[in-house]
């Protein structure tokens, strides 16, 4: 067994050490910068399901409120869910769930930190868990709901600067 104090990682940022084993990337040499990630997704459902959500008629409670809290909690625990993801001290997580049209809930997560690595995974996790929570709370009346288009919409900070989806 190798000595854990030895740095056997190849040069550069990689998830593999010199022997090809999976490791968490060493970001200790990277400067701390302000980071922002915005992720988006949606849940598409029967129009009657969205109307029931709007009317507060789901027996499990306030669907959008519970999904918002679930997404925020998930963002904070991303490192426990995604292998090799860095645990980060998040400075802000904002999650919006907005009914759109007759059959869709749009979800947007904005996650911020100041650190050596970005928060894209935290924003994507927040949207994913919020969408799954909407599904879970409404599946008794609409098993045909679809979770769609979860993606990174924007990131800011770090060496690569600003990136925005087209």
TrEMBL record:
**A GO term, aspect molecular function:** cyclic pyranopterin monophosphate synthase activity
Q: SUPFAM superfamilies under this entry?
A: Molybdenum cofactor biosynthesis protein C, MoaC
Q: Coiled coil where?
A: none
Q: What class of enzyme is it?
A: lyase
Q: What is this protein called?
A: Cyclic pyranopterin monophosphate synthase
- Spell out the subunit comment: Homohexamer; trimer of dimers.
> EC number(s)?
4.6.1.17
User: Which catalysed reactions does the entry list for this protein?
Assistant: (8S)-3',8-cyclo-7,8-dihydroguanosine 5'-triphosphate = cyclic pyranopterin phosphate + diphosphate
Q: Which PANTHER family match?
A: CYCLIC PYRANOPTERIN MONOPHOSPHATE SYNTHASE, MOLYBDOPTERIN COFACTOR SYNTHESIS PROTEIN A
Q: What are the positions of the active site?
A: 136
Gene Ontology BP terms:
Mo-molybdopterin cofactor biosynthetic process
* Occurrences of domain Molybdopterin cofactor biosynthesis C (MoaC) (ranges): 24-158
Q: Which UniProt keywords apply?
A: Lyase, Molybdenum cofactor biosynthesis
Q: Which residues bind substrate?
A: 84-86, 121-122
What job does this protein perform? Catalyzes the conversion of (8S)-3',8-cyclo-7,8-dihydroguanosine 5'-triphosphate to cyclic pyranopterin monophosphate (cPMP).
The entry's family comment says: Belongs to the MoaC family.
Pathway as given in its UniProt record: Cofactor biosynthesis; molybdopterin biosynthesis
């Amino acid at each position: 067994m190798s000595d854990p104090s030895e740095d056997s990682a190849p040069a550069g940022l990689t998830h593999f050490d010199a022997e090809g084993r999976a490791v968490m990337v060493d970001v200790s040499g990277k400067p701390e910068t302000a980071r922002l990630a915005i992720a988006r997704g949606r849940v598409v459902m029967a129009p009657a399901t969205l109307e029931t959500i709007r009317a507060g008629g789901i027996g499990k409670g306030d669907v959008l409120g519970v999904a918002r809290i679930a997404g925020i909690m998930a963002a904070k625990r991303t490192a426990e869910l995604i292998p090799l993801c860095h645990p980060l001290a998040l400075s802000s997580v904002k999650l919006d769930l907005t009914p759109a049209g007759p059959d869709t809930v749009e979800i947007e997560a904005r996650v911020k930190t100041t650190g050596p690595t970005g928060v894209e995974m935290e924003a994507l996790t927040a949207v994913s868990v919020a969408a799954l929570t909407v599904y879970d709370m409404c599946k008794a009346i609409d098993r045909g709901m679809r979770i769609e288009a979860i993606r990174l919409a924007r990131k800011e900070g770090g060496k690569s600067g600003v990136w925005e989806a087209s």
